[in-house]
Amino acid sequence: PSVPRHTNRLINEKSPYLLQHAHNPVDWYPWGQEAFDKAKRENKVIFLSVGYSTCHWCHVMEEESFKSKEIGEIMNKHFVCIKVDREERPDVDKVYMTFVQATSGGGGWPMSVWLTPDLKPFAGGTYFPPEDRFHRVGFRTVLLRIAEQWEENKDALLESSHRILEALRQTSEICVQGQESPPPSKEVMDTCFQQLSRSYDEDYGGFSQAPKFPTPVNLNFLFTYWALHRTTPEGARALQMALHTLKMMAHGGIHDHIGQGFHRYSTDQHWHVPHFEKMLYDQGQLAAVYSRAFQISGDEFFADVARDILLYVSRDLSDQVGGFYSAEDADSYPTTTSEEKREGAFCVWEAKELQALLPDPVEGATEGTTLGDVFMHHYGVKENGNVDPMQDPHEELKGKNVLIAQCSPELTAARFGLEPGRLDALLQECRDRLCTARAQRPRPHLDSKMLAAWNGLMISGFAQTGAALAEEAYVHRAAQAATFLRTHLFDPNSGRLLRSCYWGKDNSVEQSAVPIQGFLEDYVFVIQALFDLYEASLEQDWLEWALHLQHMQDKLFWDPKGFAYFSSEAGDPSLLLRLKGDQDGAEPTANSVTVTNLLRAACYSGHMDWVEKAGQILAAFSERLQKIPIALPEMARATAIFHHTLKQVVICGDPQGEDTKEMLHCVRSVFSPNKVLVLADGDSAGFLYRQLPFLASLERKDGKATAYLCSNFTCSLPVTSAQELRGMLSP
User: Fold this and answer.
1) What does each C-alpha distance from 333 to 312, 345, 451 come to in angstroms?
2) Closest CA to 86 of 136, 189, 137, 16
3) How far from the centroid of its chain's Cα atoms is residue 284's Cα?
4) CA 467, 613, 190 angle in degrees (round to 5)?
5) DSSP letters of 7-76?
6) Residues 337, 152: Cα–Cα separation, whole Å
7) Is the pLDDT of residue 328 over 90?
8) pTM listed for this prediction
9) How much of the chain is helix, strand and coil, in % rounded to 5?
10) Cα–Cα distance between 220 and 10 in angstroms, integer?
11) Domain residues of the chain, as ranges?
């Protein structure tokens, strides 16, 4: 590579996204006091650009505008320019995204916002083309207009920014109204189910026409709704909606059939042409959802998809020290000699390429059939490509094929006169060969930042899949990642989590000069992960750490006046608003997950004030839960768990005994959304016995492993049969 012409102060940052912009001709600053002081000293508008390193349109805007010498000169002359990685600083992103969505009716990344020197927003948008285009104003024009307005109408802009901020403060406030109590769970659950049912795509699954996101929160809600209504037509429909969606996603192009894992979303109704980036948070949640689908249905198809996801993460998103990287990009160079990256280049195929890689005749098939013929038929490959031009506006996928399993194995086998049992092995041979060929292509950019929250989601994925599939290796990998978190993203002196760390030189783990403190979502997803890991491994250290973190979360983020938790802690003068997330999207919002965390924490500790807090969160969100629960399906699900009361399934027995293992396998193999698992191993000095004194009164019956079902620390009659226990676990 040639020596870069420009280097700005982002070269000193650790974030892969900020480093991508370190050689722009723009005089970028990271978010911080140096930039704020410069803006005030020179009385300049701040231009804030927020994105992330695997964001396709962020790359486009950089290529078109931020690498332009002319545009760079305009930016440097008139503005103090700040770059923010939204994954490092979700608090900053959320404040200004709230503004952009409120004033423009839409949002997304890259986010472009203009602020007064005291950080109040007055203009904003997302992607801008460099020059004026049909129906769209160009970035250069916007920059010059805003610079002119600041010179000529500064007071009006300042007044406008003040009014906007006050309006945002009022509209974004979430607090309990009067003496409001948690909303009734039946109405919330029924309304959420009806809203999902109306938006459900009967043909292809999912909950919109296009674009289509995996939305694990919707699927988890439907599984819980089924578990509580399994004998009703509504319950049957909820289960059918979830399982059909999961099957269609797994067959679709959103699923990487060669390299495993799932892309971020589908641009079409059919789950066919994806936006090709792969995000860690999707893999963690989807592994857990597919393992639940296996628990419920017993269909190995779902177990295989969960294994497929974990194979991808283990191979491509895993740090040697134990953590998980954030994402892989959508864009890459088509060949080693290409000068321009293209979206999906790493994943798509030309028909002639497949024919050349799979020329072997297939024994026992219709005469003249090659491996390529079978594979191309099964995965919908066409000579001229299978991507609808409407899904490819920039013609990056012209003549290419995105693999999508369009036939059942039985139909493909019948088409070529094959025994049905042979097809799986043939297709696997083809996939292995293509995986080897694909490995020769330039890989997409890897965002090697490691985030506490997303590592938490992935630990849950490994722990829950390991428990449901009885795969000890997955549980071990979850424990390895939790150890990584405790070593690299936890400060034992302050007892607090850190937000991020980074893959450094020689496979070391590096931290930024001033570490970013953990946000609410970091605590919530890590606590959930530690509870999941305890239930999968029965190592009590994870429980002890989870309860410590829950106390710390209460201290840093709880709103004692309006109830629920703020997303960020108090005391940062650069943060204009302390917000509470109110939507379960690609990730569940932290307050939704923390309701269940608090109920689990109470079951493991006996601290009933955590149950009260859970109810207060539901009360704070009561209006939204009753009107549009589809915006909060994870919190709607938690409403049912709150009202039905979590059941403690206590197994008294020797952890190494076969009878205990049989009982534990029974508990882990059944989907029951309102249970927590406790092993009473007889160690009266252990952490759990100190937390839950009632465990000392529970005994093994006739010397055998014995199960008790307890609610509010009052226990049922003991059972010693796994079959009896299975019956007790079904609501």
Assistant:
1) 21, 7, 27
2) 16
3) 7
4) 70
5) --GGGG---HHHHHTTTSSS-EEESSHHHHHHHHHHT-EEEEEEE-TT-HHHHHHIIIIIT-HHHHHHHH
6) 50
7) yes
8) 0.96
9) 50, 15, 35
10) 40
11) 10-172, 185-331+447-644, 347-440, 648-729
The H or E element containing residue 457 is: helix 452-469
Q: 275 and 210 in contact (C-beta within 8 Å)?
A: no
Contact 677/535 with Cβ under 8 angstroms?
yes
Using alpha carbons only, how large is the chain's radius of gyration in Å? 27
**Structure token digits, residue 392:** 């490819």
pLDDT at 84 over 60: yes
> SS3 of 338, please?
coil
Is-same-fold flag (10-172; 185-331+447-644)? no
Question: Which top CATH class is 185-331+447-644?
Answer: mainly alpha
Across the range 217-243, mean pLDDT stands at 97
3-class secondary structure, 368: coil
Which among 614, 718, 707 has a CA at the least distance from the CA of 668?
707
Mean pLDDT computed over 642-652: 93
Long-range contacts of 138-146 (CB under 8 A, 24+ apart): 139/61, 139/64, 139/65, 139/71, 139/112, 140/65, 140/70, 140/71, 140/74, 143/47, 143/71, 143/74, 143/75, 143/78, 143/79, 144/74, 146/45, 146/78, 146/114
What is the per-residue pLDDT across 246-261, written as a single tens digit (0 to 9) for each?
999 999 999 999 999 9
- pLDDT, position 2: 65
Which fold is adopted by the domain 10-172?
Answer: Glutaredoxin (3.40.30)
Is residue 726 packed enough to be buried (19+ CB in 10 Å), middle (13-18) or exposed (0-12)? middle
- 574: its two tokens: 């650069």
Tell me which amino acid residue 513 is: A
Residue where the block lists tokens 């390991």: 466
Instruction: Read off the DSSP letter of residue 106.
Output: -
Neighbours of 160 (CB within 10 A): 16
What digits encode the pLDDT tens for the residues 665-718? 999 999 999 999 999 998 888 999 999 999 999 999 999 999 999 988 889 889
- Per-residue pLDDT, 1: 53
d(CA 602, CA 548): 13
Model confidence pLDDT, tens digit, residues 142-189:
999 999 999 999 999 999 999 999 998 988 888 887 767 999 999 999
- Whole-angstrom Cα distance, residue 550 to residue 534? 15
Angstrom distance (rounded) from CA 709 to CA 715: 6
Task: Tell me: cis bond preceding 110? Omega within 30 of 0 counts.
Answer: yes
Could you tell me the two tokens for 497?
Answer: 């989590």
Inter-CA distances, 414 with 168, 377, 378, Å: 61, 12, 11
